[in-house]
Amino acid sequence: MKKYGTLFVSELDEVLSGQFYLEDEKCIRWLVGASKRLDVGMERTMLRMIGNANKLLTWEAIKYAKAKGLTEFDFGGYYTGKANDEMENINLFKEGFGGKQITRYGYQRDYSPTYTLARRVLRNLTSFRRKADPNP
After folding, report:
1. 3-state DSSP assignment of residue 63
2. Rounded to two decimals, what is the model's pTM?
């Protein structure tokens, strides 16, 4: 993480949001992002500020990548599944920066039998929940 990871954080008296990227000599990829929890009673001004902080962090990451001479900025995925407002909103956020979608494939190998078992149990549990609740 120290060699390939880059963390961007926005603050205004407190941390509002953060984004963690992995990078190599060619590409920077958004791995994970987080924002201050949105309380039900939170003011609209604060909600807008947190949303804008996320956009600013992304823009700063794009500028950082360009300054380093990286040729690819990868948002780390695009939701193509069943209609889901939350995931579609994330897609709209990503689309707002322009660019194009590229299909990528990943490979994962589990070296731990315990981890392999846990991942299979989780996948089966998730699949079972989807079948039990047709309108998640």
Report:
1. helix
2. 0.68
